Amino acid sequence: xxxxxxxxxxxxxxxxxxxxxxxxxxxxxxxxxxxxxxxxxxxxxxxxxxxxxxxxxxxxxxxxxxxxxxxxxxxxxxxxxxxxxxxxxxxxxxxxxxxxxxxxxxxxxxxxxxxxxxxxxxxxxxxxxxxxxxxxxxxxxxxxxxxxxxxxxxxxxxxxxxxxxxxxxxxxxxxxxxxxxxxxxxxxxxxxxxxxxxxxxxxxxxxxxxxxxxxxxxxxxxxxxxxxxxxxxxxxxxxxxxxxxxxxxxxxxxxxxxxxxxxxxxxxxxxxxxxxxxxxxxxxxxxxxxxxxxxx
Amino acid sequence: xxxxxxxxxxxxxxxxxxxxxxxxxxxxxxxxxxxxxxxxxxxxxxxxxxxxxxxxxxxxxxxxxxxxxxxxxxxxxxxxxxxxxxxxxxxxxxxxxxxxxxxxxxxxxxxxxxxxxxxxxxxxxxxxxxxxxxxxxxxxxxxxxxxxxxxxxxxxxxxxxxxxxxxxxxxxxxxxxxxxxxxxxxxxxxxxxxxxxxxxxxxxxxxxxxxxxxxxxxxxxxxxxxxxxxxxxxxxxxxxxxxxxxxxxxxxxxxxxxxxxxxxxxxxxxxxxxxx
Lengths: 296, 276
Known about the structure:
Chain A has 296 residues and is mainly alpha-helical. Chain A has helices spanning 2-6, 13-19, 24-45, 56-61, 65-97, 103-117, 122-132, 137-146, 150-153, 161-185, 189-197, 202-230, 234-240, 247-256, 263-292. Chain A has 2 domains: 1-45, no CATH class; 64-123 and 170-292, MetI-like fold (Orthogonal Bundle). In chain A, 43% of the residues are buried. Chain B has a two-stranded antiparallel sheet. The interface between A and B is large, with 88 and 86 residues.
């Protein structure tokens, strides 16, 4: 592989070269099924219909109102569920770690979170239709208890922004629980004791000690949740049947048939998603490094 | 202790959030089960389940998805175990780049991956600058599509599988085991299959079950590559039926539950999501 030639640490280049053979299958796989497909989209977004290099697709991406709306809707849903799921997940993780709940509840919550964070797609969509759809269980419950018909007396609609957000929450906050529970365990008892010895109240301890230590971890996890929702396709498609135009649904329509009438623009739309995902992953790993300073 | 002190010791807000979380978890499940049992008017019964499981197409697609999951797991193990082993033993300088690659699937969501895969593999492979075709487009024949979708699933499962295997290898002393096996005259193949694999079986199992949970109900890759898998079947069933999809949704939940429960059983009270 080319990397060995550039490796300054290699003492005996001839022998060193052979060591890389062991990882060739992995790199070959990654190139064939991960790098090449991604490159195809990147190259495609800089190519016009005659096969020549162009920036036109990128410019058009920012001019097409429908595409901008799709990105914006995806960003809003992802941000809402990341912040909402992040706060709720944090409070749940807090309640079973340092919040003083009995131990068995902790393992129950962690197991359930493991299941729920992996329970997405079509079954999740159907479960929410049975819960909050027009004839859903909770819809009927609210009607019977409070006399409010969600679909006639309020703006609520499961197949809209809030409906999809509530559905995404089902896998968002459990993921937050899974990440935050170990982080909360990492809070050292000595910090609390030291704070109390210096006369700090519980509120002061949380505000001045625990929260600043946890903040990078909380923010990093929220970014992770953002990416988690931003890339989701199946749940939204099964729930709304493609009616709610989030960016993944638009890309799906573009794959099925060139609905934009410009393949290059379709590639650019896909590449835009990769850019957003990359930025969030970089943000996540940066914050993760910061949090490791204290919580290890 | 006075009654007030006793009440004060009950962590009210912790209970409040916990119960709220439990409701969020359980209400959709309860609603799904409740709905799935009401196929016949005024009767609580399992008719929807019987109907759903009786459909021959259910069995076909479900078995096919299990087949895909099994292929993905086996191929992932064959690809990842020797790679992680080699990096640990001989090539620590490759760690960073390999770990970077295993993170890429987080940046390339399933919908983008399938977009790229279709665009690359729906045209024939030619020797560059000539018209000689080496390989027909993978998307045009069944085995080709199977290879493509298994490869796609391997990519989706890569972060979880690699992390499981790597963590598993960290806990056993790979170097000493290898030296011991070598001094007894074992070949590389024997070392990996009879020494390394058995020692990381808990990690392999958790990676495999997580991959299983991802693959069995997967919709995005399956529907765009047009394979007769369980995910697209359930989706289509939902378009023209009401009760059977609810029954199958609850069954999928139980399946996910079983997979996650098994992971927990084998790895203890650890987190069961690779996203960390």
